[in-house]
Amino acid sequence: MTGNNGNRSEELAADIKRQFGTEATKRFLRSLPAFRTEADIPEHFRDLLDRLDGIEASVAGGQRRQ
User: Fold this and answer.
1) Average pLDDT taken over every residue of the chain
2) Residue 51: is its pLDDT beyond 90?
3) HEC string of 1-55?
């Protein structure tokens, strides 16, 4: 066996993570019923989802939240 299996696994994991973060993948997932948010959810849940989106965007942008 080769000694690069760990490195290959890390590269594969990084590639999969990168692909899940692409705008095309996000757009596709939003088109699926299971990943759509309901229009009539309570306002406090909508606020929490907006906060989560902001945190995810800051992490994806390389910023750290303190």
Assistant:
1) 81
2) yes
3) CCCCHHHHHHHHHHHHHHHHCCHHHHHHHHHCHHHCCCCCCCHHHHHHHHHHHHH
